[in-house]
Write a structure and sequence with these properties.
Number of strands: 4
Order of helices and strands: HHEHEHHEHEH
Shape: globular
Largest sheet: 4 strands, antiparallel
CATH topology: NADH Oxidase
Number of domains: 1
Radius of gyration: 17 Å
Distance between the termini: 33 Å
CATH architecture: 3-Layer(aba) Sandwich
CATH class: Alpha Beta
Structural class: alpha+beta
Strand content: 5-15%
Bound molecules: flavin mononucleotide
Low-confidence stretches: none
Helix content: 25-40%
Length: 178
């Protein structure tokens, strides 16, 4: 898809067709493409956990904390991003620059996931509202595992509109210095 068209059509989709599943092949392909994302010292400090099929419905309460994201019950697949351990060089760089690169790396790979999915005609929504303890338990991982983001994936319900993009005025967050 043309890049501008891709950026304009990618949106946070909050109504999924519960009868349309995303194939394992497509979910794995999205992750393969997303793994091409850059990360500090190429550390790739994350694990992408795909939850799909019958497990997706059981997983959805983990992204419905405090009554949020009710629509996620109809979502046929999720990718939970688990925080990994940054490489030693990345940790050194973090200390030197007083910057935590790990959440930045996770943000970038999330952007790759949603754009790769949209390019394949699959809609997404990045979810910050999540229950990390619940996700760790669900996946059988140790308590304390961190899941900074979850991404919902599926096919938008028929007729779900592509919204107009609402963004701050260009001059508000873009400058050019020559
Ligand atoms: C870090 C992050 C956390 C988000 N958490 C949620 C969420 O829990 N639920 C939700 O419906 N949307 C969530 N969103 C989606 C944003 O609301 C959305 O990206 C923003 O409003 C811009 O709209 P658009 O994605 O349709 O262009 C999140 C987005 C990001 C980047």
């Amino acid at each position: 898809m043309d890049l501008e068209k891709l950026f304009m059509t990618r949106q946070s989709t909050r109504e999924y067709d519960p009868d349309k599943t995303v194939s394992d092949g497509d979910l794995l392909e999205i992750c393969r493409l997303a793994k091409l994302a850059p990360s500090a010292v190429n550390s790739q400090p994350y694990i992408l956990h795909i939850v799909t099929g019958e497990k997706a419905k059981a997983f959805s309460p983990n992204v419905q904390v405090l009554g949020s994201n009710k629509w996620a019950s109809d979502c046929p697949a999720f990718i939970a991003l688990e925080e990994g351990k940054p490489a030693v060089v990345e940790r050194l760089g973090q200390r030197l620059t007083k910057t935590e690169f790990l959440p930045i790396d996770i943000g970038i790979v999330s952007a790759y996931i949603v754009l790769a999915a949209e390019n394949m005609g699959i809609q997404t929504c990045i979810l910050g509202m999540r229950n990390e303890k619940g996700i760790a338990k669900f996946l059988g991982l140790k308590e304390g595992a961190k899941f900074p983001l979850v991404i919902a994936l599926g096919y938008a319900k028929e007729g779900y509109p592509v919204r107009e993009k609402k963004r701050r005025a260009f001059e508000e967050n873009v400058t050019i210095t020559k």
